[in-house]
Amino acid sequence: MIRTYIRVELAGEGESPKQVIERMRKVGAVPIIGDYDFELSLDDDERLFDKLEEIHHALRGANVRYTLTTLTGAEAATLAKSRHEITHYVDQKPLELRKSLYKAKLERWREMGLDVAELEPLLDDDMDHFKTASKEFLRTHLDRISLVTDRKPESQVDGEVLAELDEEGKMMAEIKGATGLSEDQVTVALGRLISAGCAVRTQRGSKEIFVLVPPPAPNIRKTLKVVPASDEQDAESRVYYAVSVDGISARDLLRTAQLPRAQFKVAVAKLTENNRIRRDHKGKKEFYYRV
Q1: Which regions of the chain does DSSP assign to beta strands (E)?
Q2: Is the same domain home to 36 and 66?
Q3: Residue 147 placed within a domain
Q4: 25, 65, 152, 168: which one has the fewest Cβ atoms less than 10 Å from its Cβ?
Q5: Are 291 and 249 in contact, with CB atoms under 8 Å apart?
Q6: Measured between alpha carbons, how far is 114 from 130 in angstroms, rounded to an integer?
């Protein structure tokens, strides 16, 4: 028997989870939890591509994204025994369903490199508080997130989130609405962007804002134009007339006179000795003035 596993990414402007489940039930897909959202078994007399076509038509118009993974019976059995265990929750009670979903979330966070020990007791003692506490936990530990494998390639998810940031800052809800990504995806992507120095998190009043850190401007150094003087008098004249009454820094004087360093030093020494210009210091910088 062949089994197809479907991951569905909901969007805020799309249909609700309940509506999507009803669509998938019509093609025989069973809701599950874990790395996948639905499981669909194919009988020996069914053609795979016909079934995939049914899935596509079932989700058309729901405004969701989906990915497919098809496995043989043996591969599916191996998957069920791995840490990505598949749990069917068709007949589970609401409380059991919530607990199963929350456990799957904690397992994913462990894969991110986070220590979720402080959240685990809430599943037994205060499940109603778990949702709020888990969101705060993930945001607090953004900078500690290590390598994560998302449902979409990391670079693509991060790129979509980064494209929505600016130097004014955006709230989580604004980023979610603009990208169509889930809150978990946006939160994890922001963690990677903050760790990479591409974004920062800050408070603006009571609002949590994520701000773009613009890349540094490239260090472009213009080549110094040098024109040798014909003689010492020419060199002294070029240095003297490059010095303004208000003064000029040694660096700008060299650039303006456009002399080779050897000729420049001799000309400055002569002009200073003859009391035509004077040298002064402002901090670590050297300035020249006409006398």
Answers
A1: 2-9, 30-33, 38-42, 65-72, 87-88, 199-204, 207-212, 248-249, 277-282, 285-290
A2: yes
A3: no
A4: 168
A5: no
A6: 16
